[in-house]
Design a protein that fits this description.
The complex is a heterodimer of chains A (238) and B (328). By secondary structure, chain A is mainly beta. Chain A is 11% helix and 43% strand. Chain A has 3 helices and 16 strands. Chain A is globular. Chain B has a 7-stranded mixed beta sheet with strand order 1-2-3-4-5-6-7. Classes of the chains: A mainly beta (238), B alpha/beta (328). The complex binds zinc ion.
Chain lengths: 238, 328
């Protein structure tokens, strides 16, 4: 029932203790396989590894979701802060440096930390390779361009999926002579300006990342706003 | 299920249990490994007059199979032997040359590399004394990626690779008809598997053998790291099915005298394209598409589920783009 989780835990209890302190401090927590962390078995492209976290099997609202990869030099991937109406389902592409467990720690409204795990094998190198856009010069002209789609969910009536890809080199700062340059804040607001989703990204997120979240609301006029660590802001209606 | 010290111990016990099995495996395999030190045990089969194929396993690269997952072939002519692909390592190339010398006293006349993937050219060192032909695009691709492929192969199959280095083809093969040693050979360049004009196909009109190389996988899932698109590949398959041949040699999978491999390729390519299109239209994310079930009719296709995961990472972003809007 818990093969991934057991494998992930058994493989590296040492790293787990280290990374959980980094993200959860001394808070009490439980492993919970209702938090599904989906990954490919093998990272075909270590610069573009898709991960999906789904905590919708938990029967209470969540306040926060933190994901990280134990063996990445930059462990943090993203932190997700949903408002009511958001489903606790997020997908993103990120980089892996080597085979690693991937954790998703969810803080519930009642104050519990629940942790799901997945595992991805990799030949590696993702975080210390230059992004592809660094190898040609035209990245600047497409910087911040956002392509997006809204899709109605087939298995969750009333739910919509918002998926977008934003052009950005997402430099990790771990490649010689290229300082870190990455998207760090994503916000989704409804037409009246109410915050729906806040997402904090780390430089471990892939170049030109694909991001998706699922919403229950029927509001049709969302505004996406993204900012990088250089203060560039990008936005568009979804 | 709170994390406590008990659970830690359970975890550690699990690791020990697995270790024990691993050690048992070593004991059982130990004597076998010594008896067959990295021996490819290649067995060529005569599939048409003077035409031999060494059929590889329909597996992934492992340290057990040494990368022997590819078909290589040779044609014995009055003017020497034509070698079609050289395998995944120097050791394989040497083994291939050895079995050729057991079949014929003819010297090696020419070697061909069908495309730039490592299992098709890393045996070249065993043929360093003869001309090695490949399409111009293939030579460029081996030049730029050969080193990385070689490193990757060392990581995947280990010791079998010892001494293997990139040896570039030294002759450019162009499309067209050539008569070599009494065989009328038609050389064609396709694109579906390896990229623009980077897939060599050879039709031996004298024997009716079509060497399709990696444009055709049979009962082994096709691989997509360099395809310019599944529809391009489908077009190439349609072109191959118009050729007049009696025997088909795929790059991976069994040799046949039927058109079944082409039908399977056609069905499989269409299915893959449909899955990726439908998934993108529904807004699925990559991790969801990777777990789409393989239809029963492809149950004979080895590694379909694994290759689907790889294909999603190669191709799905392009399919997603088609369903993104600039704005609503
Ligand atoms: Zn190939």
């Amino acid at each position: 029932m818990l093969p991934n989780l057991v494998v992930a835990q058994a493989h590296d209890s040492v790293m787990w203790d280290y990374t959980r302190k980094m993200f959860l401090g001394d808070a009490l927590y439980q492993f919970d396989d209702r938090i599904r962390v989906s990954l490919p078995e093998f990272a075909e492209d270590s610069m573009q590894v898709p991960v999906s976290v789904d905590a919708s099997a938990i029967d209470e609202s969540i306040v926060k979701m933190i994901t990280w990869a134990d063996y990445n030099p930059i462990q943090h991937i993203f932190t997700y802060h949903p408002e009511p109406g958001m489903l606790p389902q997020v997908s993103i592409t990120f980089k892996v440096q080597q085979s690693t467990p991937v954790r998703a720690a969810v803080l519930t409204e009642s104050g519990q930390w629940l942790v799901g795990s997945g595992y991805v094998s990799a030949a590696g190198g993702g975080c210390t390779l230059p992004s592809e856009s660094r190898m040609n010069d035209d990245w600047q002209s497409s910087l911040g361009q956002i392509r997006a789609g809204r899709f109605s969910s087939t298995d969750q009536p009333g739910a919509d999926r918002y998926k977008f890809r934003i052009m950005h080199p997402m430099d990790s700062g771990l490649v010689a002579n290229i300082p870190s340059f990455y998207l760090e804040q994503v916000e989704l607001r409804s037409a009246n300006g109410d915050l729906q989703v806040r997402l904090e990204l780390s430089p471990a997120v892939s170049e030109n990342p694909s991001i998706s979240f699922d919403l229950l609301s029927s509001d049709q006029n969302y505004q996406l706003w993204v900012r990088d660590n250089d203060g560039n802001e990008f936005q568009r209606a979804l | 299920m709170a994390m406590n010290s008990n659970e830690h111990f359970e975890g550690v016990a699990m690791v020990f249990k697995h270790l024990r099995y691993a050690l048992m495996g070593l004991v059982f395999c130990g004597s076998w490994v010594q008896a067959n030190p990295l021996d490819y045990a290649l067995t060529p089969k005569e599939i048409a007059p003077n035409t031999w194929v060494v059929t590889g396993l329909t597996e992934d690269f492992t340290t057990q199979n040494g990368g022997n997952i590819v078909n290589t072939a040779f044609i014995v002519t009055q003017e020497g032997v034509l070698v079609l692909d050289t395998g995944p390592s120097k050791r394989y190339g040497e083994a291939l040359r050895q079995v050729i010398s057991e079949v014929t006293e003819q010297p090696i006349a020419r070697v061909y590399n069908s495309h730039h993937h490592p299992d098709h050219f890393l045996g070249n060192q065993a043929f360093a004394d003869v001309d090695i032909y490949a399409l111009a695009t293939t030579i460029d691709l081996i030049k730029s990626r050969g080193e990385a492929y070689t490193e990757n192969m060392y990581r995947m199959v280990g010791d079998w690779m010892r001494g293997t280095d990139v040896l570039l083809p030294n002759q450019i093969q162009t499309s067209g008809q050539e008569i070599i040693g009494g065989h009328s050979l038609r050389f064609m360049a396709f694109s579906g598997h390896s990229g623009a004009q980077a897939d060599l196909v050879i039709l031996d009109e004298t024997t009716g053998v079509l060497f399709a190389f990696d444009l055709v996988f049979y009962d082994r899932a096709l691989t997509t790291p360099d395809t310019p698109g599944l529809m391009q590949w489908l077009e190439d398959i349609e072109a191959l099915s118009l050729l007049d041949f009696k025997t088909l040699v795929p790059g991976h999978g069994e040799v046949t005298s039927s058109t079944k491999p082409l039908e399977q390729m056609r069905e499989y390519l269409k299915w893959l394209d449909q899955v990726l299109t439908d998934s993108a239209a529904q807004g699925l994310v990559a991790t969801e598409v990777m777990r789409v079930g393989i239809p029963e009719r492809f149950s004979s296709v080895a590694l379909a589920a694994q290759e689907l995961q790889r294909t999603v990472s190669h191709l799905y972003p392009n399919y997603e783009d088609a369903f993104f809007a600039e704005s609503f």
